[in-house]
Amino acid sequence: MAESAVRSSPVGEGDRSSVSTTGSFHGSTDSIPLDDSDLAHQGISLLLNNKFKEAKELFETHKNGSPLMHMGSSFVAFMEGLMSFEDERLSVAMKALQETEKRCETNNGFVSSFKRKLSRKKNTTQSQLNLEDKLQRDVIIADTILYQSILTFLNQDIPSYVKGGWLLRKAYKIYDRVHKTVVQLQQKLSDSKIPGRADLTKSAATDGNENELTEDLLSQLLAAVSFGYGTLQLSISLVPPKILKIIEFLGFEGDREAGLSALHYTSNSRDMRAPLAMLGVLWYHTILRPFFALDGTNAAAGVPDAEAVLDAKQKDFNNSSLFLFFRGRVQRMKRETEASLMTYNTALALAADQRELQLMCLYEIGWCHLLRLQWHESLKCFLRLSEESKWSKCYYEYLLAICAGALGDTAGARERFKVVPSLVKRKNNQIEAFVARRSEKLGKTVPSAECMQLLTVELLFLWNAFPTCTEEELRGLLKVCESQTERGVLHLKCLIEGALYRELQDEELATTCLEEAIARHQGMKDDLHVAAFAMFELATIYLKSPQTLPKSKTLLIKIRDNLKDYDFENRLSVRVNNAIKVVEKTLKAQN
Length: 591
Hints:
The chain has about 600 residues and is mainly alpha-helical. It folds into two domains: about 25-315, no CATH class; about 355-525, Serine Threonine Protein Phosphatase 5, Tetratricopeptide repeat. Helices cover about 65% and strands about 0% of the residues. The chain has 26 helices and two strands. The chain has helices at about 35-45, 50-60, 65-85, 85-105, 110-115, 130-155, 160-190, 215-235, 240-250, 255-265, 275-290, 305-310, 320-335, 335-350, 355-370, 375-390, 395-405, 410-420, 430-440, 450-460, 470-480, 490-505, 505-520, 530-540, 550-560, 570-590; strands spanning about 25, 115. It has a two-stranded antiparallel ribbon with strand order 1-2. Helix 4 (about 85-105) runs antiparallel to helix 6. The two termini are about 45 Å apart.
């Protein structure tokens, strides 16, 4: 994701030309020597300040002038794809990243056509890249591979997770190699400053053409590689445990703390990736941590860290739509629904020329109204999304169906349910598979308004939104559960009631409801996710007490090892895996 607010440089002042691959690719029409580092900073500034179109034009104009600008052009495409989730834009982004990767490889013939402009370097040859350029290109290649892996993960199916894992490992090996090289050069440069050792380290801090590699240059190279390394480490959090085992077997293991540390290092640097690293930190604390319940039942655990970043950059990104988007996320995590609605609406207005950001804000606005059971307002947001977004038409149609049904238009809801299966594009996608299966069943009869209201609450549960609700909102959701009388949904009703009571700290009643949900689901051939999620909710309750920790571990292992092929299995498996680690760590500490 990205940020926005208009200023000349989002990463600070100072000499920004020290890390720059000034030059042109073969076929470039640029005739004026370019400082591509300054140009890249300008492009990132535009990108993060509500000026996507201008940033795109700048990078596109100069992308044949240097690897850095080519990467900037691909990054804009990546951002457009990531924010829209639309297949066409994702495909364009993937091709752009692959092209940049190819253009930056030093063994594909482009080296000989690379025309250096001698604005800064003392010595260089046309046939040999200096070490600075080679390291910079290696980082860019790793960046493109990393972004390709993220786009691949978006498919959320097993083959994509495996392919994405391989790409992650490939990127990691490059980052690791560059990181070791830069650290060694820094050490040698440090040694050269020690009296009596200068002669011994005379060539230690130079490139292949005897150009000096300064401390500032090496620090910026380290910041560049740290951004990719940090993003990679956090991306591992998206990988289901069974796929993660494969990656770890291949010699790669994720470390979230190391990832965050690397991103913080880059965010405080003068590298062009500094503001992007800041966004990576915000993304982790406001989206990844609560969605995957990485902190157990404490969904607001990331609030202090996110607020620290937001407050520090407030004056620089005051009018940034994307900055406000993250501010709205923090407000939701703090259970400030009204404040988050106001923030999202402000961001929506400021993003007038950014369709992708508008759709992101609309989705969040619709979700906030759903928390309050304001189905009519949600319906308006989801209707616009269904008309303007190309991502998962079947998902938006399902949202429209349950909101319409919740408002009493059950006949209209039934007609929409009939359409949903025909809109499925990716059968292996968890969301599309879920809404298609549900819609096939609901389209055969006229569902009740009470049942549709329950299904809107179910989505809130599955998206782990209960921890962002106020007590008043939670009580309102409970009333929806209490209105259910149809035998066919009582297992689902009990699951949601149990989760709501747990959020309201009534763990005794929560346990009763969850156990009833499991009992009612026995023998059923559909809604397999109900039993898995009910067991997980019970496990989180048992996890709080030392006396019931063994029961928690037993349930978690049962989910992991015995329950298969249920809806949102990959999503829940990440939460289960994290919970098991917490239980084992706690039990070990007790012993």
